[in-house]
Structure formats: structure tokens, C-alpha cells
Specification:
By secondary structure, this protein is an alpha/beta fold. The chain is 21% helix and 20% strand. It binds zinc ion.
Length: 402
Amino acid sequence: MQRATLLVLLLLSCGRARSVPQEADTHAAAMPRPVPSPATGGSPATGGSPATGGSPATGGSPATTDAGLSEAAFVLVGGSVFGVGKQNLLVDHGQIVAVGVSATASERVVNVSGRYIVPGFIDSHVHLAYYPDGAAELAASGIVAVLDLAAPLSALSVDHAPLRVQNTGPMLTATLGYPLSSWGAAGYGLPVSSPAAAAAAVESLFKASVQAIKVPLTAAPTLDDASVRAIVSAAHKHGLKVYAHALDEKNAARAAADGVDVLAHTPTEALSPETLNAWRTRTVISTLGAFGNSAVALKNLRDLHERGARVLYGTDFGNTRETGVQSLEITALLSAGFDGASIVRAGTSVPAEFLGFTDLGSLEVGKRASFLVLVADPSLDPHTLSQPIAVYVDGLLVSAGL
Ligand SMILES: [Zn+2]
């Protein structure tokens, strides 16, 4: 994909509010303006009425307008917002501060009439350390948060802002186990030789501030079941979920039996009905494109999805190199029976809730103003997700004209 470029001028038409209807406009559903607290960035959910906005009792700030907004505030006008409908969004302090408002003379207007707005995407399976330039490319192309599912300990301290990153650190694996003898020799795996050592390794990773634990379950040498159960027990004690690289029937089955929470990939070997059922109340990350989009994997994901398993969009980025919402993964998800809306949810609201990115995943009051502007309706044409015409992260335009 063409690399995103940082631009501050828009293809979109921006201008002062004089060009749009004012107070007496036709937005019958216009809502009262909230008055964010400048000190905190504000929870405008309860909002103040405009009549109280300048009252000394509410602590007005000289840095804000008389409506309580900063000079950076803008209204996104005329777009169809995924999960919300055709509503204007008022953006300030990097977040959505009101939905369904009409523009006033106080804020800049960004006209997105006829465009479609979706929340910034979350890729639940990446390896940033494997592709150091990738983080900036992701943020500029619409991926605003990721789960990095294996990296050396030294990578935990790297700041990838504005991209938001959760980490597992190194996989916990057997002595000489995957990936130590292949691509992960340089710190991507941490060998453990007993259940006690495995539990101790979880403790050390927790102290290193990881947000999840990863284990590879493969052909020998690999972790035994007692070690996997010790890892799951230690991780769950700290509220950490355990992700397994388990591509075949045997290892997907024992991952479930040992209490693992998430399949880090859709398995590429056919799963039995028993194993599919064992995973129906759990979670799987798609990564279909990274494994060649095989018919067997497509069937596994279709069967898991139909049984009710939670599906997260993920690409193995780092091993794969297509930035943005990957067209190959969209094609694969469509082949596995997903429709456009369910693809958007697998990359936005579902991982936001599952991973705990509580201020991402939807475009509601109080959520971050991180979103893609699209030319087509992603529910009908999900491939439009790979070609945003603008990307905003925390209320800032980070790319346009991709
Ligand atoms: Zn991976």
C-alpha cells in the first residue's frame, strides 16, 4: 500500500462556520452543548446548558470559548457515523464531546457530507519489533491501537504514540521451543522448564507491565499441559488473558482444555466439532491473510463464528507488511461469511471491549476522536476501509489523501 503522508490541509472542505446554517438551522434534533471541564478534558455526558457555560460558578477558563470549548474544537458535519447514523460530531480535547449538534460560529467546520465515518481500527495481532517503521505507518492509515503478541522485553518501553499498544512481551515456551529456533531467537521467546518456572515467568512479565500472556503450542519441543495450566492460573490471578499460537487440532484442543482464553490465529488444520465447541464461548484472532487464506482456515473461522466465538480482526502485522486495514484480510473475512458491518465490529467495538481500550471502538460522547473518513459505506463495501480519505487520531488529522 502507498505509504501515508502527513498533511495538514484537507481534501475535505474546511472552513469557518459562517458557511453553514446557524442557530435557526434545520437540525431539529440538535442537542444542548456540553461544557467540558478544561482541567480534566471533561466528561460531558451530563453536560451543562449553554446558559451556564460562562458562569463563574462552573469555573470557566480564559483558554476556552464562551461555550467552554477550546480554539481547536471542530464539528464534523454531514457524515454517516458507523453505529450512530447521520449525525454531526463535536470534537474537542481529542475526544467526542457531543453528537447530533449543529455548528455555530465558534468552531471550525469539517464538511464530510456524503462520507462515512468509522472508529479507528484495532489490530489484535501484530509484531512491531519485527518492523520498527510500522507503528507510524499504522497510525497514519487508520490503525489506532494494537496488541503486540510477542516482542523482546526491551520493546516494552518503546513509545509508539499516537499508536496505542498493549504487549505480551516474549512468548513463554519450552526449552528450544517455537520460536527460539526460528524467527524468534532474538528474545521473542522466554524458555521455561517446569510448571513452577512457568508461573514465575508470568509473575516477572506482570511486573514488567505486560497486558497479556502468549504461549506457543506446537509439535515438540513444546510446553506440557501442567506448564500451560500453571501459566493460565498465574495469568488469571492478575487479570491477564492467555493467548495461544495453536494451529492444529491437537493443540487447539489442549489449549481449550488447559484454560487458554484466545487463539492467536485461526487454526490452519481442520478442527473437530468437539474442539470447535470448546472454543465457542472464547475468542479467536483472524490472521487469515497471513497464512495464505486457506480453505481449511476459512472454514474453521466460519464454524467458530457461527457457534458464537468472539472474533477479533488481526493480521500478524510485522510478519505481514500491508499497512492500514488489510485488503487481504477483508477478502478473507468476507469468504469466511462475515458481512461488512461484522468486519467493522471485529476491528473496533469488539476488540475495544475485549482488550479494555474503553475509550475506543465507537464514536460516542467521551470516546477518543480517532476515526477514518471513507468514500463508501463499509457495511456494503468493506474494502473502502483500506482506502480512507482521511484519518484522525485524538482529534488531529494525521493523514489525508491516502
Ligand atoms: Zn504473530
